Amino acid sequence: AQSVTQLDSQVPVFEEAPVELRCNYSSSVSVYLFWYVQYPNQGLQLLLKYLSGSTLVKGINGFEAEFNKSQTSFHLRKPSVHISDTAEYFCAGLNSGGYQKVTFGTGTKLQVIP
Amino acid sequence: DTGVSQDPRHKITKRGQNVTFRCDPISEHNRLYWYRQTLGQGPEFLTYFQNEAQLEKSRLLSDRFSAERPKGSFSTLEIQRTEQGDSAMYLCASSVTIAGGRGNEQFFGPGTRLTVL
User: Over the range B69-82, which residues count as b (16 or more CB within 10 Å of their CB) and which as e?
Assistant: First the structure.
């Protein structure tokens, strides 16, 4: 069974500082990995996804993530955050060989401090 | 707007009442998913349709829950005899089959927030 773990429930960071949101996955098969962002009272929006190929994935709003198979990690990074990045971020995984359900982590609330 | 839409956005009901939510997926998407999100948690999978066929149901989907997708278009999620523990955000997502079935992105709707008093 696949699980996705987000190690930090909240991450405060000053505006224009870099940020890293951590995500680890466990699976016995190859996985497809995603990061979603959720603004208050809204649905989820896809930031980026890793399917195969280059391990460094670039997404929207200046975010990027690196797939690291040896460490089973898929951490999300941004070199300089803005106030508008304040939101909750979810790491998620989809088993390549099974049904199409996505398994989400518990989320990390990013709070950008002015 | 051609995204996933959900109706209503908010629903307040009394314990014991029945509620029904609707999801309209992106028109060309053949796959539709329901998730439930409680406070402080990530979304949890409830059920999945491919066209009109319901292919998987989570153990979270008790007998009080039923989902349909007639004609493979919109879907409804009904909760009978609601309980306070049903209070949550109910999210719908849709996707389209990619050749080889690889990692197709799910597009999420804005959700229906249910409050059971």
Answer: beebebbebebeeb
